[in-house]
Amino acid sequence: MEQYKGRIAILGSGNIGLSLAKGLVKSGYVQAGQICLTRRNASKLKTFEQQGFVVGSDNAAAVAAADIVVLAVLPQQLNLLLNEINPSVDAKKHLIISVASGVSCKDIRSKLNTEVQVVRAMPNTAIAIGQSMTCMATDNAATVHLEEVTRMFETVGSVVKINEDLMTSATALCACGIAFFLRAIRAASQGGVEIGFHADEALKMAVQTAKGAADLLLQMQSHPEQEIDKVTSPKGCTIAGLNEMEHNGFSSSLIKGIKLSAVKAGDLYTKE
Q1: Residue 59 known to bind ligand
Q2: Is 1 a domain residue?
Q3: DSSP codes joined into one string, 163-176
């Protein structure tokens, strides 16, 4: 991968910010010294400082020294952060990347009072192992900047560009979705215990089976029903189990849960 020559500030170095920083360095996209990590208590970033990252608690100074600025705080903390960095933001120099749920590019620009280019990115917690599904959107960023953001987040998983009005939906399907699939795996492992396996065995079996199912779709590029048809024989045990789950609302409950999460995701940020 061609190395990025500029500097990156990651403001609010929680799980997502730190995972992105690790991915960018591990892939050779940048060296640790090109990334500044900030959080209110910078002493918690000691191990990252030892690895060569620049760390601190002064967000405005971090922005002033950077070319790309990643806003990685909670939506509830964003307005305070934007007020803090506003004097340091230069529309000609900076690209802003926001990972805050439910906050539009327009919202961010209205607080920064500038024509700065903003890209929204929505990764999920699998970013920690380089397996994120990151959705990104913009309303004003140049193609060259979108390509840069794509390159950045491809160091920690897959990236898809979507229309901005679908970003809260992406939050529900990809970010909240991690929890939904984890709960399905947990339920499968509990079923395994009920039919005779020890808890640790059942969990291992359910996890690997779920991983195999996902990899089948990714590598075969097939539809779930195609793969299901290969497992379901007439009067067989698989179709009996599937139909019992459907009679109890398996698919519809998952669909309803995703729809409700999308509604909630749109309400996380207040513009005041």
Answers
A1: yes
A2: no
A3: -GGGHHHHIIIIIT
